[in-house]
Automatic annotation (TrEMBL):
<comment type="subunit">
    <text>Heterodimer of SbcC and SbcD.</text>
</comment>
<dbReference type="GO" id="GO:0004519">
    <property type="term" value="F:endonuclease activity"/>
</dbReference>
<keyword id="KW-0269">Exonuclease</keyword>
<dbReference type="Pfam" id="PF00149">
    <property type="entry name" value="Metallophos"/>
</dbReference>
<feature type="domain" description="Calcineurin-like phosphoesterase">
    <location>
        <begin position="1"/>
        <end position="214"/>
    </location>
</feature>
<dbReference type="InterPro" id="IPR050535">
    <property type="entry name" value="DNA_Repair-Maintenance_Comp"/>
</dbReference>
<dbReference type="InterPro" id="IPR041796">
    <property type="entry name" value="Mre11_N"/>
</dbReference>
<keyword id="KW-0255">Endonuclease</keyword>
<dbReference type="GO" id="GO:0008408">
    <property type="term" value="F:3'-5' exonuclease activity"/>
</dbReference>
<comment type="similarity">
    <text>Belongs to the SbcD family.</text>
</comment>
<keyword id="KW-0540">Nuclease</keyword>
<dbReference type="Pfam" id="PF12320">
    <property type="entry name" value="SbcD_C"/>
</dbReference>
<dbReference type="InterPro" id="IPR029052">
    <property type="entry name" value="Metallo-depent_PP-like"/>
</dbReference>
<keyword id="KW-0235">DNA replication</keyword>
<keyword id="KW-0378">Hydrolase</keyword>
<comment type="function">
    <text>SbcCD cleaves DNA hairpin structures. These structures can inhibit DNA replication and are intermediates in certain DNA recombination reactions. The complex acts as a 3'-&gt;5' double strand exonuclease that can open hairpins. It also has a 5' single-strand endonuclease activity.</text>
</comment>
<feature type="domain" description="Nuclease SbcCD subunit D C-terminal">
    <location>
        <begin position="261"/>
        <end position="346"/>
    </location>
</feature>
Length: 371
């Protein structure tokens, strides 16, 4: 079976108030072309279909058009889960009806346990889950983190897993050790958002969303597809595309890069060099300019936009130097003491007793996982 694994479409997103729907339509059309070219048999969408819980009418229309081309016109099964940007309840409205057309949506914990089977593969749709939601569902007050939540879900799945077939998990989460980007919404404070790789050890392939870099983690069975396109200037060096997953006796995953409608760049130079385009930059791309020698210029952004209409950020080059690093004596201090020293240095007060207990628990969890 040939599978397209995509995630983090973020349809309806804006970047510095600039709408990206035109770019997203271009990327989705490329995916349709790849489906035909590669004879894709099934499509996985691993969360963050929309950029917000209440997407605009235009964003919904773009996604509906894409799904119609894939699921109705080509008759391909689509297996999707909700991400942390999606409104799970709203996204899941009508999923019982969609299932009759091979469009399967996982938006609630209960959807995780009954696999969707195609050929000789069981697909488990595990949506993004908040610890509070898992705590309520399992009636277990000991569930405090994303690790606890997904560990509990996977343990229940393992109890009924058919080892005669391949098993693929689809989810939206932060695997411990993954590489972050600025455009990903933080799931929670501290280490409680991280899920250890070993939780998914029993699956043959794990198709994930949330981290926008397609090589956010190096693993033999766990893969991120990356985001549909570049959604922040921290992603300028990241390739964008999809994962082509082939399942036969083995499971193989290859990243396939796609062309962007408008690429994204961070440029450091002088104001005059950029305004006169002495660097021969492509004028229609997205830019963050970090420029020197422009403090005397009145309204420099407006002038730059006459040459580069899609410049999105402008910074003074001398203001982009890294801030002075925090220095701490670490040779004789344990992790908790270093954290307490840092908090005292950057805030008005120190750590109270309750906060110290939380820090001690989190440090113990991290140490237990890294042993």
């Amino acid at each position: 079976m040939k599978i397209m694994h995509i995630a983090d479409l973020h349809i309806g997103r804006t970047l510095n108030q600039h709408p990206l729907l035109e770019d997203q339509i271009f990327m989705l059309d490329q995916l349709i072309a790849e489906i035909d070219k590669e004879s894709i048999e099934l499509v996985i969408i691993a969360g963050d279909i929309y950029d917000r819980a209440l997407p605009s009418k235009e964003a919904v229309q773009v996604f509906e058009s894409f799904i119609h081309k894939v699921n109705i016109e080509r008759g391909l099964p689509v297996l999707a889960v909700s991400g942390n940007h999606d409104g799970a309840a709203r996204l899941g409205y009508g999923k019982e009806w969609f299932r009759q057309h091979q469009f399967h949506l996982g938006t609630h914990i209960a959807d995780s346990f009954q696999p969707v089977t195609y050929q000789n593969i069981d697909f488990y749709l595990i949506p993004y889950v908040e610890p509070a939601e898992a705590r309520l569902y399992f009636e277990d007050d000991d569930i405090r983190s994303h690790r606890d939540s997904y560990s509990r879900i996977v343990e229940q799945i393992k109890g009924t897993m058919n080892h005669e077939r391949k098993s693929i998990a689809i989810s939206h989460l932060f695997i411990q050790g993954g590489q972050e980007s600025d455009s990903e919404r933080t799931l929670s404070i501290g280490a409680v958002e991280y899920v250890p790789e070993k939780v998914f050890h029993d699956f043959d392939y794990v198709a994930l969303g949330h981290l926008h870099h397609p090589f956010a983690i190096q693993s033999e069975r766990i893969f991120y597809s990356g985001s549909l396109m570049k959604y922040s200037f921290s992603e300028v060096q990241q390739p964008k595309g999809y994962r082509l997953v082939t399942v036969d006796d083995e499971v193989r995953s290859v990243f396939v890069p796609l062309k962007l409608y408008r690429d994204m760049h961070v440029i450091e130079s002088s104001y005059d060099q950029v305004l006169n385009n002495e660097l021969a930059l492509k004028q229609d791309d997205y830019y963050q300019f970090r420029l020197s020698e422009m403090r005397h210029i009145k309204d420099p952004m407006s002038r730059l936009k006459t040459v580069f209409p899609h410049v999105l950020e402008l910074r003074y080059l001398e203001d982009t130097a890294p801030a002075t690093a925090f220095k701490a004596e670490v040779d004789k201090r344990d992790d908790l003491e270093i954290i307490e020293q840092f908090i005292e240095a950057v805030s008005e007060g120190g750590v109270n007793a309750e906060q110290k207990q939380i820090l001690e628990r989190l440090l113990k969890e991290v140490n237990d996982e890294t042993y």
